[in-house]
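Fig. S4 source data, part A: sequence.
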Amino acid sequence: MFKRLLIVVVGVLLIGWTLTPPKIPQKIQVLPLNVEQFSIPKSPPQTYKDRIILPNNMLCPEWAQLAVNVGWEEQDLAKLDSVIHRESRCFTWVHYGKDPNGGSFGLTQINAYWCKPSKWYPNGYLQTFGVLNSCEELYLPRVNLLAARLIWLYSHKEYGNGWLPWRA
């Protein structure tokens, strides 16, 4: 009887612990932002996959369909999910200002390096591909996931590891 009661109590505690949302770490700052101030570049019509298979135990499943819609492969969803959870705890309006080049933005914490002018990309890397107009647009989930995919493809082509920018 005592054994059964102990198992029930431990089970309830474990379930409660797993359902408790994670706390935002102190180092992450969540900024309110007015979405209407951004103009999202027009993109060509896309065909969306109606049904995707989610990996087990996703921590941020709400972003999986959007990720696939902007070009992520289903086999990358588990890793992408862990990156999103580690970097922003699934929140979109996260800015980590201590990163170099003006900080990192949004779901996947894309560094401002990718959207600031450089000698190779005078308008910024992401602007060159029409993903965004300013770094602040990285707070928008669609823009952030699209930018992350473009960065992943660049890293995969140049270094053979698309996850290198996230050290995952």
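Fig. S4 source data, part B ends here. The first helix runs from residue 2 to 19.
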